[in-house]
């Protein structure tokens, strides 16, 4: 292998000479730059005749040293001369990072950008909603353009495939509510009220809400990723040029599927949660299923079911709209797809919970308590 | 050009499922040459490169780079060899969270952790300029660069360790003719000044005529011929004839002729 790069200082009548030896290559320079840095004062010349090999890094170090000490370079081989000339040509000031912005301004800038972004997203979402309404009218006036195949396919992806995971989740949630409720209510000797708790909270709130969160995570993100990828590969542009409206072909089937599937899934989730709670009551509280069901019919008004079923399609529409909207916003590179998918899920869940709060007030006002 | 091969491939076999990409493929690349690798789509040019640099484990065969076997050895064992080559992937493959200059510093930091930050910055600076990027490209992120600049930045990173061997995967694909010509000049210039050996995958006939010393033709799952373009033209393999004597091939040859004449008359 090559010998490590090294040098000796010699003084003669004309001044100091630094003689290099060994291989002046990246692998062999090691602490050479530091040791060279320790040399002070004028140096008359740099002698490269003892150097075995040189690469651009060696050339750079030699040239920098020679320039700093105003020394001439002697004894350079043809290779060394060529490389030194090459790095000399390439010597221009280059910054490594963009200029840092003072942190106060950066915070201001980021807050401002976030606000502007949020405003734009909200406006964009509204516009997108409007665009969808328009395309619904278009399809209604030209029913032949409606894409049954795409819609049915989405039904399967959004609804049927989600049955397993949503069922398991709801079952466990039913057990957790029953268990937590029973522990508290037992203190008053009122564990019978656990049935009220399970029946009402799952039908009114949790069944639909948890389903919405699951659908946002499963399907909302998938919508954003699919449409985003299609945007990147210019599929959407291709559609437009052929005269196919992406709103009709991509967005409408997805929104429709989510709107139709959400009530079904929400109802299914509520029922499974009640089954889970019922099993817990049977095993832990010794309430037989017959009593459980009878009691359930007494305490849960039918309006609780309507509350859940009215909310579900709205949630479905929000999830599908944010997913498709964020997918359509993808531009530039693949990184955007990831960012937009995350944004779709976060916004969908956030909006679902906001709307849920409005619904709570609304149903209270109309007397469905 | 010496007789000792830098890359030596013998009996290489690569399969994906039932599909055999390479079978009994042999290839030698010699020191200081620019070897162009051509072949139709799906003949496994990139797979060959990935096998040589150890990203793909072949089903059979042996590969030596700088006399060191590559196949079946883990990354830690081949560090010394990997220090001596640089790779430019098709899209540049720059790290998107780092600036161009920081991208160039990554291999230096990884293999030589003792270098001072100041020297790292200086090395990154001259490498960036050397590959023909403007100095203000240093602090930019890859997303802010054009395709051609991204490729140059990729080459700057591939050259960070002053490698002896450079792998280029379709460096001129997607570039306009002017940028592609600049890139050819850059490759040739780097070979001449730094004494590189270049393994160049390309579809670009102009690049083949302009800078390649030898061309290896991939077809029928192996390298069917290696040689200078006139040598290849003398063979009567149908694919080679169609490739070089097709309308585009003749055009590229004519351009090359004209340039040579222009140089002579000048």
UniProtKB/TrEMBL annotation, chain A:
Major subcellular location class: membrane
Keywords attached to this entry: Cell inner membrane, Cell membrane, Membrane, Transmembrane, Transmembrane helix
Domain STAS: start-end pairs: 17-118
Pfam assignment, any one: MlaE
Entry superkingdom: Bacteria
Signal peptide bounds: none
Ranges that cross the membrane: 122-140, 160-178, 255-285, 305-325, 337-363
InterPro entries reported in the protein's UniProt record: ABC_MlaE_roteobac, Permease_MalE, STAS_dom
UniProt keyword Protein transport, yes or no: no
GO molecular function, one term: phospholipid transporter activity
Subcellular location: Cell inner membrane
Membrane topology: Multi-pass membrane protein
GO CC annotation terms, alphabetical: ATP-binding cassette (ABC) transporter complex
Function: Could be part of an ABC transporter complex.
Family of the protein in this entry: Belongs to the MlaE permease family.
Full protein name: Putative ABC transporter permease protein
Taxon lineage: Bacteria, Pseudomonadati, Pseudomonadota, Alphaproteobacteria, Sphingomonadales
TrEMBL record, chain B:
Keyword terms: ATP-binding, Nucleotide-binding, Transport
An example Gene Ontology molecular-function term: ATP hydrolysis activity
Pfam families: ABC_tran
CDD domains: ABC_Org_Solvent_Resistant
Residue ranges of domain ABC transporter in the record: 7-245
UniProt keyword annotation of Transport present: yes
Key word ATP-binding present: yes
Origin superkingdom: Bacteria
Cross-referenced InterPro entries: AAA+_ATPase, ABC_transporter-like_ATP-bd, ABC_transporter-like_CS, P-loop_NTPase
Name recorded for this polypeptide: Putative ABC transporter ATP-binding protein
Species of the source: Sphingomonas changbaiensis NBRC 104936
Lineage of producing organism: Bacteria, Pseudomonadati, Pseudomonadota, Alphaproteobacteria, Sphingomonadales
